[in-house]
């Protein structure tokens, strides 16, 4: 037993190759979430899609990804881990080629849905590989690497996509997956041993839960992604999708009591330590995806940045991740997770507070310190949460726990973006109305501004009617600009409050026991 315990303390080369494969698959999947953002105008022009239709290029990916993530653990048991991941990698490459060759919106959406289904499965399985192949003494290193990949993937996407679009072609946003996918397949063949498939599990599957999960999560994702553009419940499409989402959730709830082995183990949430992780990661996910959306929007609409320039500003938050890489595994091994998570949340809240005082003159470098602080907060909060989710359950339950964890993060992000979109629309309208009420025809300041602007236009054109029209338009544009700046500042304030509310839940987190992992029967590699 002493020899067995000693062998558990260090992972083999094959184990690390398997971990590298899981990390590479997760990077490829998370990168493709946002890599099309920079290229969206060019893609829409090539395939003949309007701006509203083009949103389905992102929505299709997110919709399918969030469905497959909680199903990944069950599919792994059915097909075997290596066979399942090899199939996902090969199909992901195939769907990437389909996207790159697409000349219509339908083909593009089919390709993106296929990418989401195959890529989304590689995120929780990568986390499961780390949990099952590494001993407890090396788990902090593996989880830190995985967490860094999940955080940096969405940040690198816009920069890489913008560079490829500007210098080569938008199609290479998808073709770039070919060499990465081939490398992933090679690592899987070398690092993961073949495991037996269990096709008989298909006959005994929780098909009610699978149907409910697919219907409920896909409908809910579309509602959250498209609700604001469709004016929420003013749209019959959103009403019907909301009804389908509720029906799917009801089917999942019924399956928890009727199925012998539910496809999604919601009973794991009875564990208060695991449930607290899930709630916190939903809120942090909402904040992360919210910031990734808000800052590029601000830089694009207020500072006039393009997507690639905004991407470089966003990458500043990744600098602390690389600097903390050598230090963080030691912190995870020696520090109480509650201290780390609360410290991370404090840093994240502080970064939001720095961005509350935005002005219409704010540009990229004004986000430098808040982005650095936000990067520190992300690492200190997300890395312990990532590992605490695994520490709160047994090794046998790690696959199901990883699926729920990643689903919660993505669902939190979708909910956060939906709320942010609604807040932007309503608060912007409110601020425009309030400013216009103060800048009326009887306002001396307003009259002076229009008169001075009209004089400049008259000096250029010699037409007073045209000059006054241009001056009025400039004033209206300035009002809209100031209202939008006030709205973005309020969003950072709301994000800070939401993160503050998570801090008491961090006290429920469980720090895993130090030392080698216990040997369990049936928990082989």
Describe the model:
There is one protein chain. The chain has 525 residues and is mostly helical. The protein folds into 3 domains: 13-202, Growth Hormone, Chain: A; 206-262; 271-512, MFS general substrate transporter like domains (Growth Hormone, Chain: A, Up-down Bundle), CATH 1.20.1250.20. It is 77% helix and 0% strand. The protein contains 21 helices and no strands. The chain has helices at residues 2-8, 13-34, 40-47, 51-79, 81-101, 105-120, 122-133, 139-167, 172-175, 177-191, 207-226, 236-258, 272-301, 307-315, 319-324, 328-334, 337-354, 368-391, 398-438, 444-461, 464-506. Helix 2 (13-34) runs antiparallel to helix 6 and helix 2 packs antiparallel against helix 10 (177-191). It is globular, with a radius of gyration of 25 Å. It starts with a helix and ends in a 19-residue tail after the last helix. Mean pLDDT is 80; it is low at 1-7 and 515-525.
- Low-confidence stretches at least 5 residues in length (pLDDT < 50)? 1-7, 515-525
The helix fraction, in percent, is: over 70%
- Straight-line N-to-C gap: 18 Å
**Helix/strand order, N-terminal first:** HHHHHHHHHHHHHHHHHHHHH
Strand % is under 5%
The number of helical elements comes to 21
């Amino acid at each position: 037993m002493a020899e067995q315990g000693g062998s558990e303390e260090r992972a083999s080369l094959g184990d690390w190759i398997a971990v590298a494969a899981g990390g590479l698959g997760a990077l490829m999947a998370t990168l493709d979430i946002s890599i099309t953002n920079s290229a969206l105008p060019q893609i829409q022009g090539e395939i003949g899609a309007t701006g509203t239709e083009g949103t389905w290029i992102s929505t299709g990916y997110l919709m399918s990804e969030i469905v497959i993530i909680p199903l990944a653990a069950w599919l792994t048991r059915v097909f075997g881990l290596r066979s399942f991941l090899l199939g996902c990698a090969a199909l992901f490459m195939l769907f990437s080629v389909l996207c790159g060759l697409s000349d219509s919106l339908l083909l593009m959406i089919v390709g993106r849905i296929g990418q989401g289904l195959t890529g989304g499965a590689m995120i929780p399985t990568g986390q499961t590989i780390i949990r099952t192949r590494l001993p407890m003494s090396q788990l902090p290193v593996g989880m830190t690497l995985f967490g860094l990949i999940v955080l940096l993937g969405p940040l690198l996407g816009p920069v890489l996509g913008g560079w490829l679009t500007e210098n080569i072609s938008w199609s290479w946003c998808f073709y770039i997956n070919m060499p990465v996918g081939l490398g992933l397949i090679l690592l899987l063949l070398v690092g993961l041993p073949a495991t037996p498939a269990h096709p008989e599990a298909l006959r005994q599957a929780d098909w009610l839960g699978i149907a409910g999960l697919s219907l409920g999560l896909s409908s809910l994702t579309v509602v959250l992604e498209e609700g604001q553009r469709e004016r929420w419940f003013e749209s019959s499409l959103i009403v019907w999708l909301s009804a389908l989402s509720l029906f799917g959730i009801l089917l999942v709830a019924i399956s928890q009591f009727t199925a012998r082995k539910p496809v999604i183990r919601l009973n794991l949430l009875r564990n208060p330590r695991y449930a607290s992780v899930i709630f916190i990661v939903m809120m942090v996910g909402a904040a992360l995806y919210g910031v990734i959306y808000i800052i590029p929007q601000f830089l694009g609409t207020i500072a006039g940045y393009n997507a690639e320039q905004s991407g470089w500003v966003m990458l500043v938050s990744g600098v602390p991740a690389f600097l903390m890489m050598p230090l963080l595994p030691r912190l995870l091994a020696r520090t109480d997770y509650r201290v780390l998570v609360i410290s991370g949340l404090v840093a994240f809240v502080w970064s939001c507070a720095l961005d509350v005082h935005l002005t219409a003159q704010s540009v990229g470098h004004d986000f430098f310190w808040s982005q650095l602080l936000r990067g520190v907060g992300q690492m200190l909060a997300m890395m312990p949460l990532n590992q605490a989710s695994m520490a709160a359950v047994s090794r046998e339950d790690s696959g199901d726990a990883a699926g729920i964890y990643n689903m919660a993060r993505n669902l939190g992000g979708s909910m956060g973006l939906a709320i942010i979109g609604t807040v932007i629309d309503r608060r912007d309208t409110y601020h425009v109305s309030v400013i216009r009420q103060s800048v009326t025809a009887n306002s001396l300041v307003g009259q002076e501004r229009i008169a001075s602007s009209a004089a400049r236009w008259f000096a250029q054109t010699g037409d007073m009617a045209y000059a006054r029209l241009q001056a009025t338009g400039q004033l209206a544009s300035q009002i809209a600009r100031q209202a939008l700046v006030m709205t973005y500042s309020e969003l950072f304030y709301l994000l800070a409050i939401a993160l503050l509310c998570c801090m008491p839940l961090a006290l429920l987190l469980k720090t895993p026991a130090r030392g080698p992992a216990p040997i369990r029967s049936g928990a082989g590699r």
